[in-house]
Amino acid sequence: MMAKDFSYIGFVGCYTKPGQADPFEASHGGIPHDRSKVGVGVIAIGVSHNGELSFLGPDPIIKADDWPNPSYLTVLERDDQRPEGLKIGGLCVVSEQGYGKWQAFSLKRDNLSISATAVGEPIPTGGSYPC
Q: Model's pTM, two decimal places?
């Protein structure tokens, strides 16, 4: 199925740094985890007319190596007052890590896939994990 065939497209962020699946592991005796990287970044999920979910891969639209711990996402609606890359909507993502940052991304859907491109410069959140 092609990206244009889905009724809805959703986005999923995740923790990507080792040990971050359980934030209380070290300080509160949480469940020990494998120390390997947990997630791959922000992925796009297609929802078909009959409710079936499909990964719109083969790769994440925002890779964990480029944007670690993309744990909080917000979808931007269309707004003609926004910068050029975001007028038709977009995605805002927080990189939840020490000295975290926030970034807006434009989204592009073609027949086969979804892609994301950073718009402007990242903004420091002034916080650290967990944001």
A: 0.80
